[in-house]
Structures are given as C-alpha cells and as structure tokens.
Amino acid sequence: MTKHKLLLYAAAAFLIAAVSLVLADQIPASGILFVLFFLSLAIGVRGYEALKGFSYTIMILAAVTTSMYFPQYFISVNGFRLDNLFTPLLQIIMFGMGTEMSVKDFVGVVKMPKGVIIGTVNHFTIMPLLGFTLANVFDFPPEIAAGVILIGCSPCGMASNVISYLAKANLALSITLTTVSTFLAPILMPLLMKLLAGQFVEIEVTKMMWDITKIVILPVVAGLLFNRFFRGKTAWLDKAMPLVSMAGIAFIILIITANGRDNLMAIGLLLIVSSLIHNTMGYLLGYWSARLFRMNEQDCRTIAIEVGMQNGGLASGIAKEMGKAATVGLAPAIFGPLMNVTGSILASWWHRKPIEDKKAVVTA
Length: 364
Fold this sequence. Notes:
Na+/H+ antiporter like fold; two-stranded antiparallel sheet
C-alpha cells in the first residue's frame, strides 16, 4: 500500500471520528480531528494525477478549520495584531506575480484586441453587478454586503492562468487579461466600489486608489523589473516565489477567518451559497457573453475563467486597509477557496472535451 493511499484511509478515519464527536455533542473536541482529516487528505490526493490539483485548496480548508476552532491563536501574538502583516504579505505575493510577467504580456493587447476588450469589459461589469445583486438579494449586513461587492470589483485572480492552462484555454490571452485587469484595478475598483457599495459603507476613492497602487502596482512593477534584469540568475527565487505566494494567501485567509469567526458562524452558510452563485454565474455569463461576440471555443473558455476568478488576496488587503477585515474581508476569504474548487472542476471537465478549432493554441 502506498503512503498516499494510507493517508487517504487515515483521512477517512479522522473524518468518521470527528463526525462521531459532533453527533455526540462534543464539538470542541472534534476540531483537531477535522484539521487532521484535511491535512491527511491534502497530502494523500497528491499521489493521484486527477486529484493533485485540489491539494492546495484542501490545505486552505485545513487553515480555515484551524482558525474556526482555535481563533485565539491567530488574532494577535504578544499584543501584535497579525492582520498588520496583510499588506507586506500581499506586496510580496504581487512582487512574485510581477516576476512571472514580461513585456510579451502587454504585447498581447495588440495581438488579441478583441479578446482583451471583451474579457476586460465583461470582468468589470458582470462580477461587480452580480456581487451587488447578491448582496441585496441575501440582505446581508452592510459591511458583509460591501465585502461581496468588493470581491466582485476585484481584478482577475492569479490562479486563473493555471486553470486556463488545465482547461486547454488560450493561456496567452489569460495572462494578458490578468495583467490588464491588475493594472486597471487602481482606477476601476475604487470607482465601482463607490458606485455599488457606497450605500453600505463609506468608500474613500482616493485612499483606495493609493492602497491598491501600493499593494499591487508598485510591487508588480518591481517584479517586472526584476524579471527583466535578473530572470534566470536567481533560480532559488524562481522556485520559492510560488510557494511563498501560496503560503501567504493561506496565512491571510487564516487570520481573516479567525477575526471574523463570530460573523461567519452567524451567516456562514448564506455567504458560502452566495459565493458559489457569484463564482459559477461568472463562468457561465463570461462564457456565453464571449459566444455572443462569436469568439472561438478556446477564447470563450479563457474569458469564462478570467471573468469568474477574482483576486481574493487583493480584496482581503483592501478590507484590511478599510479597517474591516473581520466583516468586509469575510467574502473574499470564502470566495478564494471556493473559486479554486470550482475552477479545478471546470478545468478538469474542459480538459476532457477536445477543441475542434484547428487554429487553437495548444496549451496542454
């Protein structure tokens, strides 16, 4: 028996034991077992090619479970509030994103203008309007509602490029759309928030513009310059940055969940449902809006993914800069893990469906 299969059996045992404690009304004692379940499952699935893509998402669920059961360890340490680490962590993550970019990503705007325009316009209309609609339909408290809208107003998520690759979509278009939406974020994100979320919370447009610039634009530009002059000369950094980014996002989600635990306990299920609707409707409307403009199948898949996947890390950072990480930051914290689950499922489904277009770019 392989170690991965053994870990999956262990995960099943931990889950059965945890559920048994919950049914016996021993909920606090079940916490460590649920955490062990997710950790065992995350490592176990890495032994299977079809499932290994879910490993990181399962690790995120382990982090969320840990902070839900043991929040007292993730709010402050010796009087230092851990959420003060949000901005520097995000800047490191965005620097890493910049090191993966090059001038070619901007050339894509010229080479694929139709796809870039349609994808960008769809992203910054469909998702903000969906967030605004869901915030009102579910009648969330004002700051929770603002968080739902915030994640809708965010630029394309960094994970979308990986998902596009797995879905046999147009990877070049995916990278270009992520790049363009990221650089438009300092302007469009505050304006959309003022328009759609201004009725729920106070939005300081100028401050938010600066917050996004210092969190995203400056580190990404620094990463671009680093890539231009040092790419390949620091192999250890090239390998380390993806791991640092994943760890940073997990840590941010862990802290947000700990700080917002009480709010999450009160409206968690509704927030999960609204996040799933938001995410899946983004895929659906993104795909068919591209179809409406007679784009090919590969580009339609790309735009669906780029519309549906948001930069939850940036949204979490903005919530922190607003001083509302425990409320406004909850929706981004939930959207992130769910986005990776639905994106992985969509990519697996599309990966098995061949693209007939002979002009399609082979990406996988």
